[in-house]
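Operator note (shift B, R.M.): manual run for Beta-carotene isomerase D27, chloroplastic-like isoform X2 requested after the automated queue skipped it. Running by hand, logging everything below so the morning shift can see what happened. Input copied straight from the record, untouched. If output looks odd, do not overwrite the archive copy; leave it for review.
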Amino acid sequence: MVVLTSFQAVQVHNQAAAIKCGYHPRLRLKNGTVSIRCGIAEPSGEPAPVGQKTKYKDGFFEKAFMTLFARKMEKFAAKSNKDGTPVEKKGWFDYDYESFVDVSKRVIQGRNRTQQQQVVREVLLSMLPPGAPAQFRKLFPPTRWACEFNATITVPFFDWLVGPSEVVEVEVNGVKQRSGVRIKKCRYLENSGCVGMCVNMCKIPTQDFFTDEFGLPLTMTPNFEDMSCEMVYGQAPPPFEDDPASKQPCFADICKHQLLKALWQIPIRASVPSCKPNRNSSYFFSGKCFFSQGAVTMARHSKVTEKDQTRRNCLFEL
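Run finished. Output pasted below as returned.
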C-alpha cells in the first residue's frame, strides 16, 4: 500500500543527509547503498530479530501519514470489532500504528481478496489529484532512470509504513540497475501478523497500482521467514496464480494462538459457501480461517501436530 502523497525537502552533503521526520532519521549512503532509519526505538537502531516486535518512536510526520491513510480507509471499514463491540471514533492524530493496522483488519471483514485489493486502489486514488496517474506516466515512463528514481524516493517516504529499507542493485531484463528496495523487516507484516493482509492489502494492490495506473512495473517479493521484502521497479509482476505468495500458508504460531480453536468448532460437514479451495489448499478469504473438510477430519483423527496441521491447512486471514 505504497504511493507518493507528499514531498519533503532533502539536502545531501558529502554523502550524508538529514530529513526532518519525527525523531530525526538518518539517510545514509554507504558503499553506494541508500538507507534510512526513522523512528526506530531499538538500542541497535535496527529492527528487532524475528520473533520480537520492533519498537518505534513515531513523530509528527509518521502519525500524520498514519492518520491520513487510516481516515481514508475508515469509510470502508466495519463499524464494529469482531467481538461485536462498537469502534470508538478517533479524532485527528489519535491514530497510532496499531490503530492504523486495526482499521486494515476491519476493512477485510466481509470482503474477499479481490474486494480488499479494490478498496486499497480506491484509497490510493482518493489521495491523488485528478489526472495524477496520467501525469505520472508522462514524468516517469518505464525507463531505467524512472525506476531508480522511484526506488530512491521509496526509502525515505515510506519508512513510516514498512520500516527501514535500502536501495539495492537488481537485475531487470538482463540489465543491472539500482531500482530495487530491500525492506529489512516489514512493519506492516510484523504488526498485522497476517500473510493475507500483506498480500491483499499491500503487495498485490501496490503492484497493480504502479503497473496499471502509473505504467511503471513493480514486483514485490515478501520473505515470510524473516519478514523482509524486496521491491523491484521495472519488473512486471507475475500472474497471481503463479506468484509464490498466493500459495503461502498463514503463520503457524499466530494460528495456534488465535485461530486453532475454530478448528474444533467446525462440523466435519460444515457448509462454507464462499470456500473455493484450490489444489494447493491455499486460498485467501475474508474475516475467518477456513479449513477443508478433509483437514478437519485429519486433525481430529490423526497424530499430526497442531502446528503442522494448522500451517498446512489454514486458508487464512485474520
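Quick read of the result: The longest helix spans residues 195-213. Residues 220 and 231 are 4 Å apart (CA to CA).
Leaving this for review. - R.M.
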